[in-house]
Amino acid sequence: MEFSSVNTIWVLLGAALVFFMQAGFAILESGLTRAKNAGNIIMKNLMDFSIGTPIYWLVGFGIMFGSSSPLFGSIDLFTLGSYADVLPSGVPKYAFVIFQTVFCATAATIVSGAMAERTKFSSYCIYSFLISLIVYPVSGHWIWGGGWLAELGFHDFAGSTAVHMVGGCAALIGAIFLGPRIGKYTKDGKPKAILGHNLTMAALGVFILWFCWFGFNGCSTVAMDSDESVVSAGLIFYNTNLAAAVATCVTMIFTWIRYKKPDVSMSLNGTLAGLVAITAGCDVMDPFGSAITGAVAGILVVLVVELIDKVFKIDDPVGAVAVHGANGLWGTLAVGLFATDGGLFYGGGFKFLGIQALGVVAVLAWVTVCMTIIFGVLKKTIGLRVSAKEEIEGLDATEHGLASAYAGFTFSTNDLDDGDVIELGSETIEKSVPVTMKASVNNDSAKITEVEIIMKQAKFEALKKAMNELGVTGMTVTQVLGCGVQKGATEYYRGVEVDMNLLPKIKVEMVVAKVPVMDVIETARKVLYTGHIGDGKIFVHDIEDVVKVRTGETGYDALQGADDF
Question: Rounded to two decimals, what is the model's pTM?
Answer without folding.
Answer: 0.86
